[in-house]
Amino acid sequence: MIALASEEARLYLQQVPDRPVRHQADRERLLSVLGGSLATSGAAPEQIVRQLADTAHWGNVACNSPRYFGFVIGGAYPVSLAADWLVSTWDQNAGIYAISPMVSVIEEVAAGWLLDLFGLPNDAGVGFVTGCQMANFTCLAAARHGVLRRIGVDVETEGLAGSPRIHVVTSAESHVTIDIALRYLGFGTRHVHRVAADAQGRMQPDALAAMLETLSGPIIVCAQAGNVNTGSFDPLAEIAALTNAKGAWLHVDGAFGLWAQANPELRHLSRGIELADSWSTDAHKWLNVPYDCGVAIVRHANDHRAAMMSTAAYLVQTAGKERDPTDWGPEFSRRARSVPVYATLASLGRSGVAALIERSCARARQFAGVLAESPGVDILNDVVLNQVLVRFDQDDARTRAVIAAVQQEGTCWLGGTVWHGLAAMRISVSNWATSEADVARSAEAILRCHRMLSASQSG
């Protein structure tokens, strides 16, 4: 059984570089193969594995393809995939040290490596969570605890009902996961203070300063490293100076942009990021480990742990130096997400991670350069990282039609967005395996679809 799954996995991986990136079936076809009533008697395990493997070839979008640019999704380095297979084989509940000492130590080491790579305080709290949604949740839970602790309120005991109001300030361009985290944490979104952003999606420090002047009491400011559309960075040094002067907590959503810290040539983009109080990022984006893996980092480890930890008489929790991973994230039961992170970092080293980041950025610049040379194609953003916004014929309908045509054609897959009221194609380059040839082939497919649509309309 295990050998069969391994062979099927190898076949899938072998076909990914050349297969159409799009899925090749609709819901009805997938239901006809996978659905139906639950049988009274089960089928042979080998039959089920083969059915799943066969269906994946035409039912999956090849998100790990080197020509998948739809969302900020990495591939999976072979070493990270192999480590993840081991994680499933070991089947460890990585919540507490007593259950899995090895995984606890791996998490401790991987956390230290990440802090060093990002240039963040080596005594910060680190939690491995499902993704940046829960990383933002974890960091903002620590922020909620921290800003209230400073004025003598224990929110973990008293809750928000009797606590002073916390003012939450975000950019007008903050990611939706910030709002969702605020909902989960009981803040709601109606009273969030939104700060204007510039043409590239960067929070404007003057507007933030004016906003902070109107606020008193506990304050949490949410900034961004890597706008999901443009890749731009908020001016973090200026924002940090303003928030520190106000005694506010500064959180930075760095879902993919925090990884710029790992490349000396790009570190200027995130200048001042080390001055924040908390940071969130994803490893399943730019580190290219398998889903799911996000990372929550909090400068004030005591606030982090106090916001997350729970105790129970039946748990065997450590009172020593050993790490109980559940103290640093919202889950009791969880898989050993840190193991693929550890394996990938150990395999790449500092220089390998830096090269990975630069490679993706170079491929984004290549996309922008090739596409911009074609008549009727406009690049809407400054390509500072791995994101490219493209518009066709200065027309919403044409832009959306090109996106749909490219998705159907299958050479590559990318998505659309709305930027400052304009429809745009959004290209995200995050896969370790994306080559110059992949970009050239994908750009030609995009331009071919554009030419085809232009010709059909003119004809």
From TrEMBL:
Modified residues annotated as N6-(pyridoxal phosphate)lysine in this record: 285
Cross-referenced InterPro entries: Aromatic_deC (IPR010977), PyrdxlP-dep_de-COase (IPR002129), PyrdxlP-dep_Trfase (IPR015424), PyrdxlP-dep_Trfase_major (IPR015421), PyrdxlP-dep_Trfase_small (IPR015422)
Gene Ontology biological process terms, A to Z: carboxylic acid metabolic process
UniProt GO MF annotations: carboxy-lyase activity; pyridoxal phosphate binding; transaminase activity
Pfam family, one: Pyridoxal_deC
Keyword terms, alphabetized: Aminotransferase, Decarboxylase, Lyase, Pyridoxal phosphate, Transferase
SUPFAM superfamilies per record: PLP-dependent transferases (SSF53383)
Gene3D superfamilies, per the entry: Aspartate Aminotransferase, domain 1 (3.90.1150.10), Type I PLP-dependent aspartate aminotransferase-like (Major domain) (3.40.640.10)
Cofactor needs: pyridoxal 5'-phosphate
PANTHER family: GROUP II PYRIDOXAL-5-PHOSPHATE DECARBOXYLASE (PTHR11999), MIP05841P (PTHR11999:SF70)
Family: Belongs to the group II decarboxylase family.
Official protein name in the record: Aspartate aminotransferase family protein
Organism: Ahniella affigens
